[in-house]
Design a protein that fits this description.
The protein is α/β, with parallel strands linked by helices and about 350 residues long. The protein has two domains: about 220 residues, Rossmann fold (3-Layer(aba) Sandwich); about 120 residues, Rossmann fold (3-Layer(aba) Sandwich). It is built from nine helices and 19 strands. α2 crosses α3 and α5 runs parallel beside α6. The N terminus is likely disordered. Its EC number is 3.5.1.1. GO terms for molecular function: asparaginase activity.
């Protein structure tokens, strides 16, 4: 296994029966799960993940080999950038042949963005890549960290009857549910059900037994060696429609010379204000080659461009329907497509096609 300077490695020696030849790589990036309370001030401080076995001794009960790496420096999830996605993708690519599954501990604020990005960045994945975290630090008495971590690791180690890994996609495991990563959204910051998948069923539910919905799983049609993107085109912006928008402010944002893509968060089923100036601004940037994708502000449902007159105008000027994609999926998908393809027509074609199970046709 390669030794990189950006992480520290901890090996967990199992006390289980060691009947499995499975090996899992646990990647700690930062986030609430890795925090602890300062004994004097009560403030949250980073947990020394080299002592994870002291906090979660149950890790020794697994019958598979578990290796923990901790990024150095750690990432506050609110500081996540596309470069961090590249870093994570590179780690998975580098160690893909050494491990049977990957679990990433990540802060909850941008977990859905990272899960979505990794799903599009990585091609040829046929092993589980599961992100998890917690709402309370691992050192708290009532923490959800242990349950989330243990469930994620157990799911990541499951094999199909054929011997293949059971889950073969990027997922989020949180509060006993396994969700497709690029279908997930953070929905709560004050209870343990932090993530939901509004437009696609959960992939598994962990109760007394873990019940898998195998017919819901995604399997990448791409075979061959795993490859991760080494750069991300982040010249994309998110524009949320709201009542009372000012033309000058919107125009200033849309006329930035480096702009290559816009995710338009519209009302309901894809509707926008009927004001002439807004349509004119969007049409102007589309003519310049900027790709505009229309998604709904609603957490559930899909864009039906043309269903109402106010959205029919978007069809006419070349705005693309994002169907039922989440904001996180639409944004990261567009970034990745703009990186992979210089031909804008190819990007437009692929936006409306499910590449990693991110949308419903």
């Amino acid at each position: 296994m390669s030794t990189r300077t950006y992480f520290k490695t901890v090996n967990i020696n199992s006390t289980g029966p060691n009947t499995s030849d499975t090996s899992i790589l646990l990647i700690y990036t930062g986030g609430t799960i890795g925090m602890d309370r300062h004994p004097e001030t009560g403030s949250l401080i980073p947990f020394d993940f080299e002592k994870i076995i002291d906090a979660v001794p149950e890790l020794r009960a697994f019958d598979f080999e578990l290796t923990v790496i901790s990024l150095d420096p750690l990432i506050d999830s609110s500081d996540v950038t596309s470069q961090h996605w590249v870093q994570l993708g590179t780690i998975i690519e580098e160690f893909y042949e050494d491990f049977d599954g990957f679990v990433i501990l990540h802060g909850t604020d941008t977990m859905a963005y990272t899960a979505s990005a990794l799903s599009f960045m990585l091609d040829g994945v046929h092993k589980p890549i599961i992100l998890t975290g917690s709402q309370l630090p691992i050192g708290e008495k009532r923490t959800d960290a242990r349950e989330n971590l243990m469930s994620a690791l157990e799911i990541a180690s499951e094999r199909h009857e054929s011997g293949e890994m059971l889950v073969q996609e990027v997922c989020i495991c949180f509060n006993s549910k396994l969700l497709r990563g690029n279908r997930s959204k953070k929905s709560q910051n004050f209870n343990f059900t932090a993530f939901r998948s509004y437009n696609y069923p959960s992939l598994a539910e962990a109760g007394i037994f873990i019940e898998y919905k195998r017919d819901m799983f995604w399997k990448d049609p791409i075979n061959g060696p795993v490859r991760s993107m080494k750069e991300i085109n982040a010249n994309v912006m998110l524009l949320k429609i709201f009542p009372g928008m000012h033309k000058e402010m919107i125009a200033h944002m849309l006329k930035q010379p480096q702009l290559q893509g816009v995710i338009l968060e519209s009302y309901g089923s894809g509707n926008i204000p009927s004001s002439g100036w807004f349509i004119e601004l969007i049409e102007e940037i589309v003519k310049k080659g900027v790709i505009v994708v229309n998604i709904s502000q609603c957490t559930g449902g899909t864009v039906m461009q043309g269903h109402y007159a106010t959205s029919a105008k978007l069809n006419k000027i070349g705005v693309l329907s994002g169907k039922d994609m989440t904001t996180e999926a639409a944004l990261t998908k567009l970034m990745c497509l703009l990186t992979k393809y210089k031909d804008s027509e190819r990007v437009k074609e692929l936006i409306g096609i499910p590449l990693k199970g991110e949308l419903t046709l």
